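Tip: read the tokens left to right.
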């Protein structure tokens, strides 16, 4: 009887050890498979050409400046039209910035987290102005900036190699044209 119990225990122990070892191999296989899938996914992310990357970085920097200046216009603006234009800048450019960030993340493009030196200088210079001087300087800057933006986004919509960034430029262009028209109208109203 003791022999049968000992024999049974030996078989059970061997069976348990084999089961555990088998699971270890299966777990290793699962980890290897997941690693292969991750490597394949990384390899599928196509490198973005330099023009497309430069466009994304410049657009992100400009978009951040528009939001920053829009907030400033809401606080410092004297004219209600300037304040309203600032609110539109914050809303529309925040939305565009979020779309651009999503595209950049998917394509492993590193966008700036803070304003570039030139953009920060514009913000600092404008922040020194007050009253009607602020309104005029802000609307002058918004008119000039949006003329440049429309030109840049129009080129990008026609010439970028990256299809998602090309589509982003194309889809954002009508909003930028609306901003330019609005900036010109607000600027003209300040002269009255």
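Filled-in amino acids:
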């Amino acid at each position: 009887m003791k022999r049968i119990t000992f024999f049974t225990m030996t078989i059970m122990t061997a069976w348990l050890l084999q089961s555990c070892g088998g699971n270890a191999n299966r777990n290793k296989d699962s980890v290897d498979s997941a690693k292969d899938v991750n490597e394949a996914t990384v390899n599928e992310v196509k490198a973005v050409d330099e023009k497309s990357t430069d466009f994304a970085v410049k657009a992100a920097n400009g978009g951040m400046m528009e939001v920053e200046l829009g907030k400033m216009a809401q606080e410092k603006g004297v004219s209600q039209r300037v304040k309203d234009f600032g609110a539109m800048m914050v809303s529309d450019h925040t939305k565009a910035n979020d779309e651009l960030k999503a595209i950049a993340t998917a394509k492993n493009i590193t966008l700036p987290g803070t304003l570039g030196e030139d953009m920060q200088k514009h913000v600092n210079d404008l922040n020194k102005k007050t009253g009607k001087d602020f309104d005029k300087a802000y609307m002058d800057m918004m008119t000039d900036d949006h003329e440049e933006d429309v030109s840049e986004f129009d080129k990008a919509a026609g010439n970028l190699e990256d299809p998602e960034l090309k589509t982003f430029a194309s889809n954002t262009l009508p909003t930028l044209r609306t901003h330019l028209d609005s900036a010109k109208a607000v600027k003209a109203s300040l002269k009255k």
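Residues 22-28, 33-44 have pLDDT under 50 and may be disordered. The chain has two domains: 1-44, 48-190.
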